[in-house]
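agent> fetching stored inputs for the iron/sulfur cluster docking request
agent> found them:
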Amino acid sequence: VIEQGQPEHSVITTCAYCGVGCSFKAEMKGTEVIRMVPYKGGQANRGHSCVKGRFAFGYANHKDRITSPMIRDAIDQPWREVSWQEAITFAAGKLKNIQQKFGKDSIGGITSSRCTNEETYLVQKLIRAAFGNNNTDTCARVCHSPTGFGLKATLGESAGTQTFDSVMDADVVMVIGANPTDAHPVFGSLLKKRLRQGAGLIIADPRRIDLGISPHVKLDHHLPLRPGTNVAFINAMAYVVVEEDLEDQSFIDERCQQENYQQWREFIVDSRHSPENTAEITGISAQELRAAARLYAKANNAAIYYGLGVTEHSQGSSMVMGIANLALLTGNIGRDGVGVNPLRGQNNVQGSCDMGSFPHELPGYQHVAREELRTKFEQNWGVAIDPEPGLRIPNMFDATIDGSFKGLYCQGEDIAQSDPNTQHVQLALSSLECLIVQDIFLNETAKFAHVFLPGASFLEKDGTFTNAERRINRVRKVMPPLSGMADWQVTMALSEALGYPMNYQHPSEIMDEIAKLTPTFAGVSYEKLEQLGSIQWPCNEQAPDGTPIMHRQSFPIGKATFAVTEYVATEEKANRKFPLLLTTGRILSQYNVGAQTRRTDNQMWHDSDVLEIHPDDAQDRGITEGDWLGIKSRAGDTVLKAKISDRMQPGVVYTTFHHPESGANVVTTDNSDWATNCPEYKVTAVQVEKVTSP
Ligand code: SF4
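agent> prediction call returned; pasting tokens
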């Protein structure tokens, strides 16, 4: 007898929110999920979860779900519901027409970090094999692309070095530009556990985050750096280590390239990097910075965890390399309790990068210009691959406005809300001749679309996600796709209509192909995932069960490379017209642009974005709690309610971007990282004043 609320059966799957990748048991009654129970056997979470994974899954059945394909000839026309076949034929016809008129490079696609590895792999294959170009990019462009670039350049692999459990062996933890208790809560709890046991804590962040004010945690140093000065800060840390002879010379001698190290050393010992000479730039007192550098360098095991406060800057890639420099200099790489650990935002952002979503890299970060790598894919796919790297997302927008880029396939991304300088993005999207949006909701981007292909929620997917510790977790189908088609089947249908048929019966066959072509995935299969529960790549002949800690004996590039990271001030400076610096972040209960969390039946998820402002700045402007504030930058303006908070430092204001009506990205500019074009979301000079109404 089934009692009210008792499940009839359950399916083990993976959370579709953050990069922790918690495993859950979806408890079912018929085809309805009645509960998500954190799964004790989950190797990333061991029975723990946060509120989002546990309670915010109702969006999967929300009334806003679109389950029928829709088309229209122009964006001012109403949508017409059509069959899958008609939608695919319509979309393929438009793309073919554009290519005939404007050439093969006039179309491209964006993959999603919300989708599975297998789905992402197929979209980039569609673009390379059926579109015939490398115009593929991923939303990682706007978050962790500098991590991929910076860690590959220094350590030889585009991924974090540790397993989450490694933090339990850390004696000192430095958290830079991350807010783990809000954005990666299950890892945040593990970190707190280690800190309660006595590990030292350094936080480098313009804002006082929860971890630093928790009564149960002893904060050794808060380094309240000014937004945009990360590289000056990290260079000063390295300067202190070298000046005070705190480096790990035997690690440097054995594991790092010597000539390169000597060049870097000459660069860093220059007194312009001293804490005394950088204090005015960073806003961090020299004494405090020296004490923090000593704490980090003298620890037996020191670990760095960082987030988007590191990457989303015009010097994001330099900062990632600066962090790697510091870890190499002090020998904090290649064992438990140490490392360089990017906290990835989305459930599968690591995977979307691993799967070849970048315009210059095939799956496994294999450069498309290298003939021997390209040939391997060409032989397997039976098609020639363009050796020229394609367009990045911001270049796609620019090329659209210039008139050379006309068609875009956007899967599982809401670029009209999430990308910076909304006005510019909207102008580009409205100029496209064909925009195909595949999503579970009619999102902001779909307002500019000609074809809407209904996507599947994580509960309707079979496949894998890869979390922030390179852990490949199985995602298991809990219910059939509401639209009748799995996302990988839709990509296959579009590919066939474009003249490049693919033939897979199940996502496991896609993973088998990935394993064949990607050395770091060579040993991965669904069978092995069932046996082991999950696998951390690299998984291959040398590491048949995967690799929890990377770089133990050697680096993929042999010896590690120090990078010269010159501090270059951002163009975005506070001035008389725009006297405050705006930086952005997230709160625990919401997730990114809020498309899922805002559609959850619980008041907890019905908040709104606010502007946090320091009491002194508020007083100067006659602002009181709850006032409406007009926020203006050189890109645009928006209105938010005031929250007066001493978490902010004077001169810096803060908001989140979870609600489309708040328009945080209306004010962010199109400044971007010099190496990867990751937008500088974290620094916008703004003017803030009281207004009477929104
Ligand atoms: Fe999901 Fe992240 Fe929360 Fe885990 S910590 S339940 S992965 S949102």
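agent> quick read of the result: The first helix runs from residue 51 to 55.
agent> awaiting further instructions
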